[in-house]
Amino acid sequence: MLMVSGKCLSKMSYASQTLNITAEQRYQGLLERVVFSMLIGMPCCLFLFINGIMLFTLRSKTVFRETCRYILLYNLLFADTVMLGLSQLLYILSVSRIFPVYPVCGVLIMLTSLTNEISPLTLVVMCLERYVAVCYPLRHATIITIRNTAVAIIVVWAFSSLNVLIRVLLLLKFPFEELPSLQMTDVCSDIAMFLGPMSDIYDKAYTGFVFVSAGVTVTCSYIGVMVAARSASTDKASARKTRNTLLLHLVQLGLSLLSTMHSSIIVSLSTIPQRILFVHIRSTFYVFIYILPRCLSSLIYGLRDQTIRPVLMYYLCCRLKKKIKV
């Protein structure tokens, strides 16, 4: 009896120890999720605020509303801000382990995909505008007009919307009626919406096309500005500033296009056996692929542009400074 009693006590002690370890691991996992959410959410909210101020700044003065370069910047910032807000919403749903139904997830993913494609295409148009300004300064006013800029923005949105429409048509071919329920069993992400091989093939083909065409266009614009900078008739200061802007746009374009490859990268990393390590790597990629590119536009133009900077600082300081006339 004593031996049996001892064995029972031993089993109870082991079970209690196992429960304690499980509770400790759960607490540690919860603590890590809270810390990671704060580290990622705080800079995201900060740049959402800065982007919002930048958008308000670009609509506050006539010079910004009537200059093609700033109209393109407004379009870029608007897409980046919406993209940043949607990606943060998806991240909160993922961290909170909230699994929506497939239609809701599909709408969120398609809106995210739409705004995600706007950024690299708008950057290409902005680089071409700077190329024309340096290489063809006498024809810049006739080529880069408000009407042509509006047409370029419409084409960018139409091309991106066509891409989303094709993705939706590919999704409709999936036999949803065979699913036991439309309730998702995993986090809402672009990977979860690849419900067939055709969606994956199309995504890779489209990403490759955008990556190559946009990269070649921006690189050629940069080389053209470099060549024009050596000409005696070119304004050296303007050419140097444009060259630096194009170089920053090239880096920004590379980071933005990486976000189109995010799903492929995550799929390749999903083979990592440690779940916690995979979550940490995924969160790191989220910061550098999604958040960082959407913050660079405000930093590039908000700090470097002499026309925007005083007005932006005026609004960031809650109008405490002397009134600025532009």
Would you give an account of this structure?
With 326 residues, this protein is mainly alpha-helical. The protein has eleven helices and no strands. It has helices at residues 2-58, 62-65, 68-95, 102-135, 140-143, 146-172, 197-229, 236-260, 262-269, 275-304, 308-316. Helix 3 runs antiparallel to helix 4 (102-135) and helix 6 runs antiparallel to helix 7. The longest helix is centred in the first third of the chain and has 57 residues, at 2-58. The chain is globular. It starts with a helix and ends in a 10-residue tail after the last helix.
H/E series:
HHHHHHHHHHH
Q: What's the pLDDT, averaged over the residues? A: 75
How many strands? 0
Spatial shape:
globular
Structural class: mainly alpha
Alpha plus pi helix count: 11
- Helix fraction? over 70%
Distance between the termini: 93 Å
Low-confidence stretches: 1-21
The main sheet comes to: none
Rg, alpha carbons:
25 Å
Brief summary of the model shown:
By secondary structure, this protein is mainly alpha-helical. Helices cover 79% and strands 0% of the residues. Helix 3 (68-95) runs antiparallel to helix 10 (275-304).
